[in-house]
From TrEMBL:
The protein, known as: Heparinase II/III family protein
Domain Heparinase II/III-like C-terminal positions: 382-639
Domain Alginate lyase: 71-291
Segment forming the signal sequence: 1-28
InterPro entries (UniProt xref): Alginate_lyase_dom, Chondroitin_lyas, Hepar_II_III_C
Keywords: Lyase, Periplasm, Signal
Main location: periplasm
Domain of life: Bacteria
Lineage, top ranks: Bacteria, Pseudomonadati, Pseudomonadota, Gammaproteobacteria, Chromatiales
Length: 737
């Protein structure tokens, strides 16, 4: 792409960072990446005064002092993720980075000398290394220090910053040795040596381009910067800017999902800051309508109670206090001075020692934080925002609640085959759950800390999620390339004081089958309660077996239908596509009417899932753990609603939180569901669900009309109603909407 035309399309941000402009290629003062010489002067002043920044400095200095008192260890690489040598090299790059910062702030050359000596040790080791012995050649590019080149790129991102921080303390001979024997060879290995990764639009490519690009700024290699931005051929088909174009939607949602959005955020934020500090004329923070800032904010929104929503290959313990987002929040506040980011910074309880971190610390000291607003929002997926969406519904009516609805795109190789799945959260706990990733990160005994085989055989399979499975076969027949080429269509999303509603469909997950799901988190203001409404329509040209699993966290309490339970011997629910991992523990066939399943969560609340059934839906109760000889899977519970030999079927259900169980004080309140009636009908484009709960009758109307004809009139029980939005809730006993 012509760069002049490209830059002419860039819109301006509200705030502009003013930087003294040096022509690229001129020798700028070091440090000149994320932390600049000007930042250092302000940071040195700050550490002489009481406050959060000086405390963070003292804490880090004490930590670094303990570490630099130990001998330098740069081992010959041997182990995979979680092994000794892997972890030692991780610790080394973090220590070099931290010691470099302490050197700049304390001006004590002992810290610079420690970093210098470690870099020289690496410079002596690196020329002797071949590819890593624990490399996984069949699926990923290997590194030399690490089993995959991704980790090598992370090493360079941190190490080049450490080198930049101590550059002024080095002799000409040390600079020559470190650059020619270590940093330049690593940068060339990660770029020209692995073009498929460096040019790839993927988080591995992001880390590689960030590391090589920053090395270009520090070592005065402008060609490296250009290649990092535009790919090795400088064609614009790959590189950092292409990653900003394609990996994020216009709203800042990252295609691989929240877990990898968090992971990829650090190289995006770090390299962008380095670009701004070295070449402000590129206006990187204005690029694509401020996509970097949007990505930071979206990462925060993709969390509940401090943890990221665990879709795709996600480890559930990752949250907003992760170091990548700490850097992101500091940058976001620096760009906007929005006090809500200080609220997140306060929750993170970490101050980074940088110019941006200083601004956060000083603002927190002044008490400028204001509550960050978490919203109900549909984040469009794909570079154009039109490849489905990730939908978040939130309510505070009955405590902090959230529904995550996923009519989103596949998410590349880390995506799961879970179109139109959902999760539910209440009072800080996951209630309707997603397994996330089958992995013990950096636990060497568990498959070297890599993704477990069960990640493919179970966690990615459709039955591991809360969406329809046709004929016990996963969406797109488990083919990632097919999945990446086909995304759901978001019909509508709306949020108001009545609640939040969204509808989407996909007709490519199975040949000749259309899946359509409409979900709503509905506020029942009179009762100060919420319910989750779920309408799932399956229409096919041929008859199929249809399974709709619901994975829940908690203890099964009761069903209102009889169960045949396997108490002596268990068998797997199926033979493949994840079914081989589910023990069939019991089954029941509810009669026509309401089928209820209740469980108790660790948060002390009861949850009842009420389905409107026609007498043909069998309920299969399962426990995870079959076909698992290495005990890799968690023993979680689910029930599967199954209908056989059907061309079309509508699954209708609501989820009702209720009651309280307090064993410490020995009381139980409202342990039973308060839903006594549930009905469904349709008038034209309006879906009608009538429900009686706690003795109060409600009519919930969902308007499916096209945008141009949103106002709809309809009749119900000889009464006239009108709806001019997507969701309406009528309390039938008083005519009030």
């Amino acid at each position: 792409m012509n760069i002049a035309i490209f830059r002419s399309k860039v819109k301006s941000l509200i705030l502009v960072t003013f930087v003294i402009l040096l022509p690229f290629g001129a020798q700028a003062a070091h440090p000149n990446l994320v932390i600049t010489a000007a930042d250092v002067l302000e940071m040195r002043k700050a550490i002489t005064k009481p406050g959060q920044f000086s405390k963070a400095y003292s804490d880090l200095k004490a930590q670094v002092d303990l570490q630099v008192a130990q001998p330098i260890i740069v081992p010959v690489p041997k182990d995979g993720g979680g092994g000794y040598t892997h972890e030692q090299h991780k610790n080394n790059y973090q220590l070099m980075y931290n010691a470099g910062i302490i050197y700049q702030l304390s001006q004590d050359k002992a810290y610079a000398e420690y970093v210098r000596d470690m870099l020289l040790a690496y410079a002596q080791l690196y020329p002797t290394l071949g590819l890593h012995p624990a490399r996984k050649v069949e699926s990923q590019n290997p590194g030399k220090f690490f089993w995959q080149s991704l980790n090598e790129a992370v090493w360079l991102v941190y190490t080049i910053q450490a080198y930049d921080l101590i550059y002024a303390a080095l002799s000409v001979q040390d600079i020559a040795s470190i650059e020619t024997k270590l940093l330049k060879p690593v940068a060339l290995f990660l770029s020209e040596g692995q073009p498929s990764t460096f040019n790839k639009v993927h988080n591995h490519g992001t880390w590689a381009t960030a590391g090589v690009g920053m090395a270009g700024y520090v070592m005065n290699e402008p060609e490296w910067v250009e290649k990092a931005l535009y790919d090795l051929e400088k064609s614009g088909k790959g590189g950092f800017l292409k990653q900003l174009d394609e990996l994020f939607s216009p709203q800042g949602y990252y295609n691989e999902g929240p877990y990898y959005q968090r992971y990829a955020l650090l190289p995006f934020v770090t390299f962008a800051k380095a670009i701004e500090n070295n070449e402000p004329q590129r206006k990187i923070f204005q690029y694509r309508d401020g996509i970097v800032l949007k990505a930071i904010d979206t990462t925060i929104q993709l969390s509940y109670d401090g943890l990221f929503f665990p879709i795709n290959d996600a480890i559930k313990s990752k949250g907003i206090d992760t170091i990548e987002l700490v850097h992101g929040v500091a940058l976001a506040y620096s760009l906007t001075q929005a006090p809500g980011y200080l609220d997140i910074a306060k929750q993170q309880d970490q101050i980074i020692l940088s110019g941006d971190g200083l601004k956060v610390a000083q603002a927190l000291d002044k008490g400028l934080a204001a509550s960050y607003q978490f919203n109900s929002v549909a984040f469009g997926d794909g570079s154009d925002g039109k490849q489905g969406a990730l939908v978040i519904m939130r309510s505070q009516l009955a405590g902090d609640q959230a529904v995550l609805f996923k009519p989103a795109a596949q998410g590349l190789g880390h995506g799961h085959f879970d179109k139109l799945t959902w999760q539910f959260y209440d009072q800080g706990e996951e209630i309707v759950s997603d397994y996330g990733a089958a992995r013990f990160l950096n636990v060497e005994a568990k498959f070297g800390g890599r993704y477990l085989p069960e990640n493919e055989s179970y966690a990615k399979q459709t039955v591991a999620h809360n969406t329809v499975v046709v004929d016990e076969t996963s969406h797109f027949n488990g083919d990632v390339e097919v999945g990446n080429a086909n995304a759901p269509v978001l019909h509508f999303f709306e949020t108001s004081e009545l609640g939040t509603v969204s509808s989407a469909k996909i007709d490519t997950a199975y040949q000749g089958v259309e899946l359509k799901r409409t979900m709503a988190l509905v506020n029942l203001a009179e009762l100060e309660k919420t319910i989750v409404l779920d309408l799932f329509d399956v229409v096919s040209s041929k008859a199929h077996q249809l399974d709709l699993p619901l994975h829940y966290l908690g203890q099964l309490i009761d069903t209102n239908f009889s169960l045949a339970v396997n108490t002596g011997q268990l068998s797997a629910l199926g033979a493949k596509n994840g079914y081989q991992h589910l023990w069939l523990k019991g089954r029941g066939l509810p009669k026509q009417g309401l089928a209820k399943v209740s469980w108790l969560n660790e948060n002390g609340r009861f949850y009842t899932h009420t389905s409107l059934v026609n007498g043909q839906e069998e309920f299969l109760f399962t426990q995870l753990g079959a076909s698992d000889p290495n005990f890799n899977l968690r023993n979680e519970q689910a029930f599967v609603r199954r209908v056989k030999n059907n061309k079309q079927h509508r699954f209708i259900s609501i989820l009702e939180p209720h009651g309280e169980y307090n064993p410490g004080k020995e009381y139980t309140l409202e342990a039973e569901s308060q839903v006594t009636e549930l009905g469904y009908s349709q008038q034209g484009e309006v879906l009608l669900v009538d429900i009686t709960i706690a003795g109060l009758p409600y009519l919930i109307a969902i308007n499916q009309a096209a945008e141009g004809s949103i106002k709809q009139d309809f009749q119900y029980q000889d009464r006239s109603f009108s709806i001019n939005r997507r969701l309406a809730v009528f309390a039938l006993n008083d005519d009030e909407e």
